[in-house]
Write a structure and sequence with these properties.
Layout lengths: L1 H18 L6 E3 L6 E3 H6 L15 H8 L5 E3 L18 H12 L5 E8 L2 E8 L10 H17 L2 E5 L10 H5 L1 H14 L4 E5 L5 H4 L8 E4 L10 H8 L10 H6 L5 E2 L2 H16 L13 H4 L27
Parallel strand pairs: 5-6, 6-7, 7-8, 8-9
Antiparallel strand pairs: 1-2, 3-4, 4-5
Helix pairs in contact: 5-7
The chain binds zinc ion.
Length: 324
């Protein structure tokens, strides 16, 4: 029945294709399947207006949305050794790098920029998941070190935004070495007494979550992000137990104390600026008014002894401790 495959099927396919939505105009929400007009999606920073699902965004979009007036300077990342193992699986690693470069226009999975947030100097290192799953190889390690050095040099806060599947397998042990390297980078910033913040986005897993991503002075996360080390399926198969609902999601980590705040994308910039202000300008903007002492607040005359209140007195009692 060749005429079916040669004649009828293409006709049907052509009919079906006609009713299909062009890719560039509408996008389907992965969570609620709603079709969203691309302009509406851009306006909402790629957050579904129907269910609030946070779609992934690239490094450039991150930088644009966070810096004051989307004004920042990208820094040239130090050249790292390319394809040190001459690795090949189903495809050469060097070809994968070329593909990632032409797809994203980036030379590495990370972008480093400096600028201001709320008038304060900030260095941001943002990962791009579209570049080989945001995986961390020597180039990304160099990028993190460069970001840390720049933050120290400029006395700026450092914000790292991982979106990564973890270490880059194609670089073998060299990719694993980026874990301690990134920790050294973070330590440089901490030793200089500068704030180091992390914004965990979907996904933050593997060697990335096992190194710099979990060391933030403040750890923020985007709603619904997957954050963990090993994947849920691997854990389930290893421990032979059903994992709880929402396991490895940002909200679950917040409940269990691994994350400080889960912040919707539209509130991120203001929240980060507020944190930077709190960390860097601890002087309160208003005059400090002393709280009334306990005696004043209870409407009682101060004790006549004139001595300091007994620090060991039982709390809330107000009665003097019995003499022994
Ligand atoms: Zn949705």
């Amino acid at each position: 029945m060749n005429w079916i495959s040669n004649f009828v099927r293409p006709k049907i396919r052509a009919l079906v294709n006609k009713t299909e939505v062009p890719d560039n105009l509408w996008e389907k929400c992965r969570a609620c399947s709603a079709m969203i007009f691309h302009r509406e999606l851009e306006a909402s920073q790629r957050v579904c207006p129907h269910c609030g699902f946070h779609m992934r965004i690239g490094a450039k979009e991150r930088l644009d949305s966070l810096f004051d007036d989307a004004d920042y300077t990208l820094i040239e990342l130090p050249e790292a050794i390319q394809d040190p193992l001459r690795f090949r699986d189903s495809k050469r690693y060097s070809e994968r790098l070329k593909d990632a470069h032409s797809k994203t226009g980036q030379r590495e999975a990370i972008m480093v920029a400096h600028g201001q947030m709320g008038g304060q100097p900030v260095v941001i290192a943002a990962f791009n998941f579209a570049y080989m799953g945001g995986s961390m190889g020597a180039g990304v390690g160099e990028g993190l070190l460069a970001a840390a050095r720049l933050a120290v040099l400029q006395e700026a806060s450092l914000l790292v935004i991982p979106s990564s599947g973890g270490a880059r397998m194609q670089e073998g042990i060299l990719s694993l070495m980026q874990m301690p390297r990134s920790v050294i980078a973070v330590d440089m910033v901490k030793e200089a007494g500068l704030p180091y913040m992390v914004l965990l986005t979907d996904p933050t897993t593997g060697g990335v979550s096992a190194s710099f991503a979990m060391l933030g002075d403040i750890a923020l996360a985007e709603p619904g992000s997957i954050i963990g080390f090993a994947g849920a399926r691997v854990i389930e198969e290893t421990i032979r137990e059903k994992l709880p609902d929402g396991f490895q999601r940002a909200e679950y980590l917040l409940e269990h104390g691994m994350v400080d705040m889960v912040v919707p994308r539209r509130e991120l910039r203001d929240t980060i600026i507020r944190i930077i202000m709190l960390l860097r300008q601890p002087t309160p903007p208003a005059e400090v008014v002393p709280l009334p002492t306990r005696d004043e607040s209870e409407g009682r005359a101060p004790t006549d002894s004139g001595s300091e209140p007994d620090a060991d007195a039982p709390e809330g009692g107000g009665e003097p401790a019995p003499e022994q």
